[in-house]
Write a structure and sequence with these properties.
The protein has about 450 residues and is an all-alpha fold. It has a single domain, classed as Growth Hormone, Chain: A, CATH 1.20.1250. It has 18 helices and no strands. The protein has helices at about 10-40, 45-70, 80, 85-100, 105-110, 120-150, 155-180, 185-210, 215-230, 235-240, 245-275, 285-305, 310-325, 335-370, 375-390, 390-405, 415-440, 445-460. Helix 13 runs antiparallel to helix 17 (about 415-440). The chain is globular and about 65 Å long. It starts with 9 loop residues before the first helix and ends with a helix.
Length: about 450
């Protein structure tokens, strides 16, 4: 039986978009600063930094899908607040605290980081894994709300466009805000920067509240179907979800996209420090270029989305755009040229973001129709695992490149600078290109099937 859906206001969509802001703000700050902080400021040997990051990513192999599976069953006070809302609030508070801990390495350990790296290594592993667990707790549940709360295609497109615009500000803030409070060579200043980031995260919870509040209809559906459906164990849920070809295609594309994006964002402060020779705040110009390019492109992508284009195909097009505009940055050496190139890359980035969430929602709809149950938490857990596993690919790329170019011996040598340029541009371009090609071969979801799934969901009321 079809149930009338509550009206979603623009303010609700904008509030939901604050979650995108916080996600990208935290991811950007983590990706751009943490690796360089431990390698070049603390002085932890490159092998240990890479190994810590890889262990952190392996932790995701259990952490993300498991959290998705467990929280899918409900939350404290779920009959009143819903099964997602409490986890989002708890997760965000823990994320803010754990981010501060990452940069709170005991000073006595820092002095001996090269001669006795084990204590700092253990601190890095434990704190970034705590950060990841907390981040997953809120972000997985935040993503899981979208397909259930925003059910109409037009509402999804409009909400995704608003979320993209708000989220891009988070990307910019994640890159721009931290350098305003830390300086290269000043270790204590990084902790100050972390405290500021944590404070912004906590403040963001207030703005996020209306967008993530679950409606009475959502809570009612959860309570009714919670008693009806048979529980599956963790491995069974993961195995069943992974049988869907379009889901596999999507998360593989996201993994390769995120791997490229992580390499780029983690490279910018290396570029600023060793190629451009500017202060930490000097990289703001580069990120400003990306922000402008992204924001300017969003109205164009939104206009296309209103014409009913296939979200899956648009991901392919925007991936090619990112690949095309990232590669030329391999050969740049001035801050102005980087700013312009990042602006052009931002055009593809803005498009990918505009269509990414609706594309995932379309895939979730198809799986819900086929399985006749809503296990969004498990699906988002798989998605998060592959996206976050990109930290391992970034660490491996940096370790191989820095070892081959003897970065540790002389970070200003010609070989070291070439290595930075490679993991800033050429390697990310390869990631984006590979993702697009594989998605073309694997994705099968067309417009007619998407429309049929919408009709089926209305009659099933899941």
């Amino acid at each position: 039986m079809r149930r009338e859906q509550p009206k979603i206001t623009v303010l609700t969509m904008a509030s939901y978009g604050v979650g995108k802001y916080l996600a990208e703000f935290l991811t950007g700050a983590f990706g751009a600063v943490v690796y360089k902080f431990y390698e070049t400021e603390i002085g932890l040997p490159a092998l240990y930094v890479a190994l810590a990051t890889i262990l952190y990513s392996l932790w995701n192999a259990v952490n993300d899908p498991l959290i998705g599976y467990l929280t899918n069953k409900g939350a404290p006070f779920s009959s009143r607040l819903g099964r997602r809302f409490p986890w989002i609030i708890i997760g965000l508070l823990l994320t803010a605290l754990s981010f501060i801990l990452i940069f709170s390495v005991p000073s006595s350990w820092i002095a001996n980081a090269k001669s006795n790296p084990l204590p700092v290594f253990i601190w890095m592993v434990l704190t970034i894994c705590l950060f990841d667990g907390s981040y997953s707790l809120w972000e997985l549940n935040y993503q899981s709300i979208f397909p259930d709360k925003f059910r109409e295609q037009e509402v999804r497109r409009k909400s995704a466009g608003i979320s993209t615009a708000v989220g891009v500000l988070g990307v910019a803030a994640g890159f721009v805000v931290p350098p305003l409070f830390f300086s290269y060579g000043d270790i204590p200043s990084y902790l100050t920067s972390a405290i500021v980031i944590a404070a912004v995260t906590v403040a963001g919870i207030i703005l996020l509240n209306p967008g993530i509040r679950e409606t009475k209809e959502m809570i009612s559906r959860f309570v009714i179907h919670k008693d009806e459906k048979k529980d599956e164990n963790f491995l069974s849920s993961i195995t069943k979800a992974f049988r869907h070809r379009d889901l596999k295609a999507f998360i593989l594309l996201l993994f390769l996209y995120q791997s490229g994006a992580m390499c780029m964002t983690s490279s910018v402060h290396y570029v600023g420090n060793y190629i451009l020779n500017v202060e930490s705040s000097g990289t703001t110009v580069i990120f400003a270029g990306m922000l402008i390019g992204t924001l300017v492109s969003i109205p164009f992508w939104m206009k296309l989305s209103k014409r009913g284009v296939n979200n899956q195909k648009m991901l392919i097009i925007t991936s090619f755009v990112m690949a095309a505009f990232s590669f030329p940055m391999t050969f740049l050496s001035t801050i102005g040229s980087f700013a312009v190139s990042m602006g052009l890359w931002g055009v593809g980035f803005g498009g990918f973001w505009t269509f990414m969430t609706p594309a995932m929602a379309d895939i979730v709809d198809e799986i819900v129709v086929q399985e006749k149950r809503r296990d969004d938490g498990v699906l988002m857990g798989l998605r998060a695992f592959f996206m976050r596993f990109s930290y391992a690919s970034q660490a491996i790329v940096f370790y191989i490149v820095h070892t081959a170019t003897r970065f540790d011996a002389d970070p200003t040598s010609g070989a070291a600078k070439l290595g930075i340029s490679l993991h800033m541009a050429a390697i990310p371009s390869l990631f984006f290109l590979t993702g697009a090609i594989l998605f073309i071969k694997m994705n099968t979801l067309d417009s007619s099937r998407i429309a049929k799934n919408k009709e089926a969901l209305e009659s099933m009321d899941i």
